[in-house]
Write a structure and sequence with these properties.
single chain; 465 residues; alpha/beta; 6-stranded mixed beta sheet; 5-stranded mixed beta sheet; 17 strands; binds zinc ion
Length: 465
């Protein structure tokens, strides 16, 4: 080789070596795997994690699933049965109790949204009191952080039962977040990375699609959901812990001293055999045997009763939302408004038409308090509409307002409300009380008479805790 050629070859080798050194890739940090979960439980109040804890114990201890819990409120409303703190101070205590309950099941990743514990049965009141949008944003961010395969949450619907507005609002938020977290146009600042060091509010997360969502209901009649999802034994003994799943779940619930101090004292003095007697009695058992997880929907084709972790991949079958058109036919008609009207649109918009709905609609109301029946009347937006409302209520119930003739303004729909005062029943009467129908008949110009019915059960208390 001539000296000049040798020099060129040498220089070439040096350049290649220098380039190779320059091309050594710099490491880009991956997402934090400590927060990735299989199951994300989204519930309203400290102690509501117990909706699913026997199932979570099974998945954590024997199927090695990773679980995180999000509480949408701190639980500052209601009564402190243990010590004197109330309101925000009690909420601070309940946050710790919730963390302790989760920690007993090995769940360390626990977050709280900023919903205010709101004692009402109306999902819309809870959502308005919470700040719906800000909490949805926070929940979507946590889904993008935790990347759950499956979400467990409260049932979005109205039934006779505890029927807590906060529970329903949590279910609504979880469904919305399930549908939004994979959309890059939703809360895009969560997906943006920082370009320079002072852009510290950009999250640098990725979109995420949870695969399935299941619900737990606090309806009085839990049997109506039999067969609506996979069912898991709560009495089965955990192979790794040698205890039944209900006992592991009950042990976790013992953290909630501000809520059930007497019961915790009583139960903690019992032997496992004595506790078993309580669990074997359907009237005193904390959880039904088996526990049904009510199937909401799945991103991939699956049967409602398939195992929670079956069919977590495949070809996505698109569901087409309704687009939220309120009165596509333009025909004058009346529907129940308020939460019932909202849920009608909600189920269509989020492809949850298979969710069970109480038919006729039903509600439990505290005896002696007002029953409000919200109505939405759809009519011609270009002219006023005269209507007449007649109300048929059980004997002894007093119609306070909402019946008679009304002239509605020229608008596409008008909200009205029938208010009925319910009688105060004695303890004995309440024990025997059965659901009673309230019927509202509406007719008007160009609007044939329509009857709406709602079944009402009078109860000792109607405001949930
Ligand atoms: Zn609750």
């Amino acid at each position: 080789m001539k000296p000049i050629v040798r020099t060129i070859v040498l220089i070439s080798i040096l350049v290649v070596a220098t380039n190779l050194r320059a091309q050594t890739p710099q490491k880009v940090n991956p997402p934090d795997d400590r927060y990735k979960v299989d199951i994300l439980e989204v519930v309203a109040h400290p102690d509501d994690e117990a909706f699913f804890t026997p199932y979570l114990a099974r998945e954590i201890y024997d199927n090695h699933k990773r679980v995180a819990v999000i509480f949408s409120t701190h639980g500052g409303s209601g009564v402190n049965r243990f010590t004197r703190e109330r309101g925000p101070a009690m909420a601070n205590e309940r946050e710790i109790e919730a963390r302790q309950a989760c920690a007993k099941l090995g769940i360390q990743n626990v977050w709280f949204l900023d919903g205010k514990d709101t004692a009402s049965q109306d999902v819309l009141i809870s959502l308005s009191n919470w700040g719906h949008g800000a909490n949805l944003e926070k929940l979507v961010g946590l889904i993008r952080l935790t990347r759950p395969e499956v979400i467990l949450t409260h049932y979005p619907g109205v039934f006779i039962g505890e029927n807590h507005g906060d529970h329903q609002a949590t279910g609504v938020l979880a469904v919305e977040a399930f549908d939004l977290a994979a959309d890059p146009t939703v809360f895009p600042s969560q997906l943006a990375g920082d370009m320079s060091h002072y852009e510290s509010y950009l999250s640098n997360l990725k979109t995420w699609q949870p695969k399935k969502i299941y619900f737990g209901s606090d309806a009085n009649d839990g049997k109506q959901f039999k067969g609506s999802g996979p069912a898991y034994s709560v009495r089965e003994v955990s192979p790794s812990r040698k205890k039944p799943y209900w006992l592991l779940a009950m042990d976790s619930a013992m953290a909630h001293r501000t809520q059930f101090p007497d019961e915790i004292d009583r139960l903690s003095k019992m032997s496992d055999a004595e506790l078993e007697k309580i669990m074997n009695n359907p009237d005193s058992s904390w959880w039904p045997e088996p526990m049904t997880l009510i199937f909401g929907k799945s991103y991939y084709p699956t049967k409602p009763t398939d195992d929670v972790f079956a069919n977590l991949q495949g070809a996505h079958t698109e569901c087409t939302p309704s687009g939220g058109v309120e009165n596509p036919s333009g025909t004058p008609h009346v529907t129940l408004g308020g939460p019932w009207g909202f849920y009608g649109f909600f189920r269509k918009e989020h492809c949850l038409q298979n969710l069970r709905v109480a038919d006729p609609p039903e509600i439990g109301v505290k005896s002696g308090t007002a029953l409000n029946v919200p109505l939405t009347i759809y009519h011609d937006e270009k002219k006023t509409q005269e209507i007449e409302i007649k109300v048929e209520a059980p004997a002894g119930w007093k119609i306070v307002s909402g019946s008679g003739k009304f002239l509605l303004p020229a608008e596409a729909n008008t909200n009205l409300r029938v208010e009925i005062e319910t009688p105060t029943l004695s303890q004995d009467e309440l024990k025997k009380a059965t659901r009673q129908p309230v019927k509202v008949r509406v007719q008007g110009d160009g609007m044939a008479e329509q009857e709406l019915r709602i079944d009402v059960l009078l109860r000792p208390n109607g405001i949930p805790e």
